[in-house]
Amino acid sequence: MKKNRFIPRDISWLAFNNRVLQEAADKTVPLRERIKFLGIVSNNLDEFFRVRVATLKKMQELGPKGKINSHENPGEILESIHEILLRQQTDFEKTWDAIKKELKQDHIYLVNELQLHARQKEFVRNFFLREVRNDIVPLMIESLRAFPVLNDASLYLACTLAKADNSLPVRFALLSIPVNRLPRFVVLPPFNDKKYIILLEDVIRFCLPYVFSFFGYDTFSAHVIKVTRDAEIDMDHDLSTTFIQKIEKGLKNRKKGRPVRFVYDKDINIFLLTYLVKRLGLTKKENMIAGGRIHNFKDFMNFPQEVFSRPHNRKHPFTHPELLHAQSVTGKVLEKDLMLHFPYHSFESVIDLLREAAIDPYVTNINISFYRLAPKSKIIHTLVNAVKNGKQVTVMLELRARFEEAANLLWKNELEEAGVTVLLGRPTWKVHAKICSIRRKEGNNIRHYGFVCTGNLNEQTAKVYGDHCLLTAHPVIMADINRVFQYLENPKNHTHLLKACKKLVLSPFQLRNQMIKFIDHEIKDARNNKPASLTVKLNALSDPILMNKLSEAARNGVEINLIIRGICCMLTENNKFKKSIHAISIIDEYLEHARVFVFNNGGNPKIFISSADWMPRNLDYRLEVCCPVLDHNLKQEMLDMLQIQLSDNTKARILDNQLQNNYVTNAQKPVRSQIETYDYLLAKHTVKNSKVDAIKF
Questions:
Q1: What is the pLDDT of residues 221-279, one digit of tens each?
Q2: Does a structural domain hold residue 695?
Q3: Do 193 and 274 have their domain in common?
Q4: DSSP strand E in 362-480: where?
Q5: What's the rounded Cα separation, in Å, for the pair 484 and 524?
Q6: Which of 110, 365, 631, 670 is the most exposed, fewest CB within 10 Å of its CB?
Q7: Closest CA to 117 of 177, 198, 199, 184
Q8: Residues 582 and 637 reside in one and the same domain
Q9: Are residues 14 and 113 in the same domain?
């Protein structure tokens, strides 16, 4: 077998999820954060099975036609996934056991239905009868001809009903645990300075006699099960159905997607397990996994905070110093470019910019693109008000944002009812760019201003996702943004507009080729013994063409720095590299989500922010925007922030060929980049604020 030129994407992803698990195991991380990281690991795995494992299984069924490339085949990757997951599951359970011991040291106890004392039993019983009972409808599965479709990733209690004197035959039932309507965690009254929590499924287990009182049984057992289904939406090619109808049909089909994982409590009644496997039509191929009592650990991201006596010292976002005492965001943006860095800077400034546009009598048009929105989006509310104030508002809304399809369909309806023009892009591409253009006309003077963002316009995730947002009125950048919206309004006749952009670099047209040109320029300088370097920060690196080009650059002596949060398929170690590649992944309290590209360019650095990772899907099948940073001060700020990250020796892991996830260690002073970045930006905020105060006095 030929040696792999790249690390398989899914194996690299598992290494990333292991880095998240490392955070959960790290005793220097606050206990509540460690529990949250366990929840993230679980949530990540759910999505991994729903999307990646499901895809690999489909490819495996295609036989030779399903090979990923000449070096990899889906069957081998699935076997590797299974081996890795077994090891990670062991580490996960050890970590959870350690966390439970530490919780007890803090007098916090997660109890089950068998560990309740008298007063707690009364509380649980009353809570069930008051809050839970009406949301419980048991399914007596043996009497159903058609077995019910189990919702993807939902939790069920598989119940066995018996009579102690054997006067009634044993029966099986299923109960859906209503975590979509009720909290997963129930905080019990404190006792002797100790705090107690019980899971909703254990509340139900304790009260099973009330659920099944009608049937006359007196002996019950219940164990948690979960089915994970293929979540990919297959778009049919029926020309008689609209794009919207295809999305809606895909969402319905997703609920019935083939099972790719069946997780169950290892202590479940063997006869019930056998019955379920038969009725669900499962085979050994469906990744049947025996686990403990608790499943859907993703809910632990919302572990009750009130039980912790020590407050969490999360640093709060602050207003950008240029905007702190500004009369308006709009006025500042029309004056100069500004860069917001989330979650350090407040996302409210973006909302303020749009809110000002909504009421500004000189603003005539607002164009904006969305991918994922907050559940109660302030931005949507602002745009609706803009329409009421007579503005023409156009929204590009990507309906195929994975797992946001249903929410975005609802947003589409709400926006259209308010009078907003909603664009849906092209069926063959996802629109992943996050851009905005605002048209302001004062007399004969027309100006455009807006922004380009590396992340979603979501005020909730902006509190924890590390992203950059360039607020600008640069005429050439704004002309390019307007070209993008002109294209989206009429894709068939305006493709030439995308190719005519002068500052923005777009996929799927130019981005990969332009990156290659910039790397080639560095290679040329290295060959001529001139300083040559590049820094690339991404969520994921898996594009073979660009990875090959980076390897070529390293062989020619270009200094390469990679900051890759998640997937990194590149083999970063090679004795043929003239200069070793410095490749790290930073996993910390905030999720590193920004994409930044820096090329030395003969000492005059070219710096870009982008919505695009270096993956084939981003470069070939999505409309993405890569925007240059032109302002000298902003360029230096971006370089400073990247240098802080490259100096991280606390939360940075080395991305090596063996996927060992070893921490960066050196004898220098400890550098935790997210803390250092916060302090760096806050210092600018403080200096700016003190200057303003000095002028005042």
A1: 999 999 888 877 665 544 445 666 666 666 666 667 788 888 899 999 999 999 999 88
A2: no
A3: yes
A4: 363-370, 392-397, 421-423, 430-431, 434-442, 445-453, 465-472
A5: 33
A6: 670
A7: 198
A8: yes
A9: no
